[in-house]
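Researcher: Let's continue the batch. This sequence belongs to Protein MEMO1, and it's 253 residues. Same format as the previous ones, please.
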Amino acid sequence: PQLNAQLEGWLSQVQSTKRPARAIIAPRRIFILGPSHHVPLSRCALSSVDIYRTPLYDLRIDQKIYGELWKTGMFERMSLQTDEDEHSIEMHLPYTAKAMESHKDEFTIIPVLVGALSESKEQEFGKLFSKYLADPSNLFVVSSDFCHWGQRFRYSYYDESQGEIYRSIEHLDKMGMSIIEQLDPVSFSNYLKKYHNTICGRHPIGVLLNAITELQKNGMNMSFSFLNYAQSSQCRNWQDSSVSYAAGALTVH
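Model: Same format as before. Here are the structure tokens for Protein MEMO1:
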């Protein structure tokens, strides 16, 4: 009940961007791509379980899609321990369950743990996932925070021309966000190489951008825009630390 009340509270405060819908396409499959925080992984990994339990209701993993992905030979299996330790996918499960409450028996999830992929691997996985992204009955959720700033994160980039430290962090994050909005995976890679911004979901984001690039080659028209940005606290001195958060959506036209 506590989780449900919390989610209803937050979701009721969302500024709606569209007028009331006459019809909607509810996703039948929800892909959740999250970065690996605890295990070194050079590819992507699939879960070894059938069900993810949430306090709201159980979410079923799509074994048919898992079978298709496994057959490519591009994936490994994560151990139960890795699966239970990893929060990047887990954090999205209650939201997914709540948002899909009225369709709870009609959809499945496809959790994918994304490793520290090279640019060429991001391209390969982007190509693979592009056919799923093209299908309007699929939804993709990409898990990421933005800048982790401060000594405990071993990251302290500061551009004095921006004023206070937190302003510099925001400027750095928004530079990256605007590159993501341009849907350009190469520019995003270059931005990360130049500034080393500690965006934990940089590889899942890279996979998504490459999938989009693949679909654009085939004439599909899409746009991405960020809807919200926040920092856990405002850093003003070198002892401070903060984590940034950004939320955005991809639309197909």
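Researcher: Any comment?
Model: The chain has two domains: 24-142, 145-198+218-252.
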